[in-house]
Sequence to fold (147 residues):
Amino acid sequence: PGGHIEPGETLATGVLREVEEEVGIKITRKIIESGKELYVYQGKECSLRPFFIFESSFSKGSPFFLRQTLVLFYVIKLPADCSSIPVTVQITEVDSYAWISIHDIIKIFNKEDGVVKGRIVKSGVTEPSSEIAYKQLHPVYPNDMNE
Fold:
């Protein structure tokens, strides 16, 4: 999932909103007495943390127009086996998804060659497990939607 932070949102609440909107996974944020934030999926604690941050800058053909974006990637660890987590993709936003290990994420960000098992979504229908090349998962900014 990806997107942007809405006015008044924290980074964490924006991440949780995008995850729910784009893949249908509802994670709730709770503040306990000590002020610590807890994240809960299906009644069990899970973790949410920033993993990778970079700045994206580009101009739209004019040296006087420069758009800068801070891009953050988060890792969410859910207290369930990935095969038991129902995923409902927002077909206007998501064309494929994969459950990716930290090991594979590091290889993807290092732009190494390889594949992960994932699911391709075509016309709203999720196909059986298939291989998705790391290079298909490389973050590219700006994207076609200038996000």
In short: Residues 109 and 139 are 8 Å apart (CA to CA).
